Amino acid sequence: MDSCLVAVLWSLVPLYVTVCVIFAVFADADMTLLWASVAGQRPERKLKGLVVWVTGASSGIGEELSYQLAQCGARLILSSRRENELQRVKHRCLQSSNLQDEDILVLPLDLLERQSHAAKTEAVIKYFGQIDVLINNGGRSQRSLFLETNLEVYHALMELNFLGTRGSGSIMTVSSVVGLAGAPLATGYSASKHALQGFFNSLRTELTDYPNILISTVCPGPVQSKIVDNAFTEVLDKPVPTVGSQEYKMSTRRCVHLMLVGIVNGIQEMWIAQQPFLLFYYAWQYTPTLAWFLTNKLGKKRVQNFKAGLDADSAYFRKAS
User: Which CATH architecture has domain 27-284?
Assistant: First the structure.
């Protein structure tokens, strides 16, 4: 190799290291997604007029998805169990966009009642004539120790988070960082999200002969929402005793914007999280031994806080920070 070219390449090493350091400090998503957010297709151009079905649309990420999709001009099907909350979301969507009443269909849906899904889908097809994008966002989290958790809780988590998401068409599924790596107090939740990852990764491979069908998986870290408020504990229908601060979590608006950037740019898997959580994704991907060390160290403290009746999440994530 020419000596001048070698010298040029070596001169670029400090720049490369600097970029990596900046990325480690400021990035809130994987590099593919961040690049698409700068130079890729814009959601407001690609989503206008499309029919998008959002499950879990009554709160959190699903609610924010509804607002941003409406502002992009997408026609919407809003689903969750709580019809009154869906009507509230629809009203706000209409207020903040140019959509008309007939552009938004409120369709109550319980993901656990899988026998009803075919009829619900038929209702959507009859109303809009098509479904362009299905966003599987419905589900619940968990805050309980394995040894204290009833089997019914694990059954409910798998039914809701995994089995409740199966469908057809262009699909975006909201998984989690715990779909890539386990976390204490979330054994069942993590198992259900790992099942999602395996199922949709396999489905994506089976559909390689259909390149126009996008199977996209989103792995967000901590995001501001009510997911902890509604989390399963060791017994079905027992509420979480302590819901801590949301201040350390990523804003729902930013997370949803990146999700929409990802889907319009055909990104198959998205990692979305503030630092230092994003670094954990990379640690599990490339240095699992280090990742196990950090997870065990922080996880032990999280369990101790939980047993002491403290806000396990806030203490855990402040420690990580």
Answer: 3-Layer(aba) Sandwich (3.40)
- pLDDT digit string, tens, across residues 9-19: 777 778 777 77
Q: What are the sequence ranges of the domains in the chain?
A: 27-284
CA distance 138 to 190: 15
pLDDT of residue 168: 38
Determine whether 127 is an active site residue: no
Q: For residue 288, give both structure tokens.
A: 């699992």
Specify the DSSP class assigned to residue 215: E
Count the alpha carbons within 13 Å of 139 in the hemisphere toward its beta carbon.
26
| 152 pLDDT more than 70 | no
Q: pTM for this structure? A: 0.82
pLDDT digit string, tens, across residues 176-198: 888 888 777 777 778 888 888 88
Instruction: Please state, in angstroms and rounded to a whole number, the distance separating the CA atoms of residues 172 and 54.
Output: 10
Number of Cβ within a 10 Å radius of residue 115:
6
Q: Which of 67, 189, 281, 316 is catalytic?
A: 189
CA neighbours closer than 13 Å in the CB half-sphere of residue 45:
5
Closest of 239, 273, 256 to residue 60, by C-alpha: 256
Residue whose structure tokens are 């999440």:
313
